[in-house]
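Task card 7
Instruction: Convert sequence to structure tokens.
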Amino acid sequence: MGSIKEAEANMSFSIKKVFYVLAVVFGVSALLFFGRTVMVPMAFALLISFILYPICRYLETKRVGRIWSILWTMLGVALLLVGIITLFGSQIVKIMKDFSDFSSRLHEIMASLTSFINEKVSILPDVSEEDIMNMSKDWFSSKSDKLVKTMLNNTSDFITGFVLTIIYTFLLLLYRHGLKCALVNFAASDKQKDYAHMIDNMQHVGQKYLTGMFTLIVILGALNSIGLLLLGIDYAIFFGYLAAFLAIIPYVGTLIGGAIPTLYAFMNYDSMWYPLGVILIFWFIQILEGNFLNPKIVGGNLNLNALVAIIALIIGGSVWGVAGMILFLPFTAVLKVACEHYKQLKPVSYLLKDDLYQTDDTNHLEKKVKKIFKK
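Output:
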């Protein structure tokens, strides 16, 4: 009888605590959604400041003033971005010049598809290619105003967010010591040292994530470009690094990054071996990335399981769009670090771990594969 009462005491359920948790979740979600205009640039600035902090600190050790060290660092990043945009901008211009060939190829495919539907699908009435073209023109004409307004709004929002990100990054790097002291002072006096250690760990995870992703993009872009060059695909460097950059968005980005050059090869080359070759190249590189590159370069720093990554991807896309798909994964890793420092939140940290699936009877073949990649 005593053991039953003890078990009931250990299994106690508090509706009050559940209500508080749900209220916090809904409150934070509403804050993130309605405050995204301010918070998205701030989130990007926070991650950028994580990766720029070691460079600024190094310059400061060389007796460069804090303001000047920040300015020089940000100027170096700006020059790097200008160089990248210049390099790929020329290829984008060439692709746009070839758009007429792409349109004619698309026209041929549409004609073939129309004849196939008319011959094979008897339950549908015959459809002429002219009818399809007229329907598409009517659709574009009816949606053109909305598309133009959406494009202008998105461009305006991007420019505003970009400028705010630059300003926030500068201010976060400038006030980093004061901000850390202010956050530490929220903790009790006997816990301030542990709280400061937690903040350092969170900053370290964000920094490692960004440096790891940058390294991964460079390596993946080189591998993709080499594979496409060997296959003979035009604009191989552009497609290779575009796919590598899209890999920032887990799972979905990799799929889109491989689909774009595959579609280009299908539209511009007569042989089906070209798109098939592109698929095989990206499939092989994806296996290499998932089993070796990502775990070695990024996975060890993030240490998140696939289920959590997918959920973070979906929630981020729902709340902040594409920006959320990029940002929510590293911030989930930062959240895991914070949960590790609180006794009540350690179960949450455990649920976020990458090795959640591992058991003592792990498949023998899986062990051998991991052993090969660890060499």
